[in-house]
Amino acid sequence: MDCSKFRSCRPQFSAKWPTCFATSLWWIWRWRNNFVFGKENENPFDTGAFIRGQTGEIWDVFSTPKDRYQGLHQNAAVRKEVQVRWIALPPGWCTLNTHGEAKGSPGLAGGSGVIRDDEGQFIKGFAANFSICHAYRAEFLALKHGLKLAKQLGIMRLVA
Hints:
Elements: H1 9-12, H2 17-36, H3 47-61, H4 65-70, E1 94-104, E2 107-116, E3 122-133, H5 135-152, E4 158-159
Parallel strand pairs: 1-4
Antiparallel strand pairs: 1-2, 2-3
Helix pairs in contact: 2-3
């Protein structure tokens, strides 16, 4: 992939640069996954033009006609910054984080999870193959697998 094509976003869209940057990161991640999973033919030929088009569409959705001429978002004053942070669990509690996914619908599926204590320290993790199913079933099976694991470990106070 020729990264120089992304530089063309900046001079043409100076006010749009943050949107262009975020859009570029997302699509690079997506194209990387296409490469990893053998779907390289789904990647566009002219990545720079594709990113500029996606940036323009996103910009149009989040701005008003007047703002497009001024290069400003109307919603900028309405936006509110929210601090996101991890909140410690009460002593004696554990947390279970799981994820399941399928390559296709249905497709090859799997899931994984991790159990941590009230200080965020790793207790146990797992990864599992669920054969062929839909993504929502893979999510469910990962949660079920994690709950069984917690029960085997004798964990009675669990946040999932």
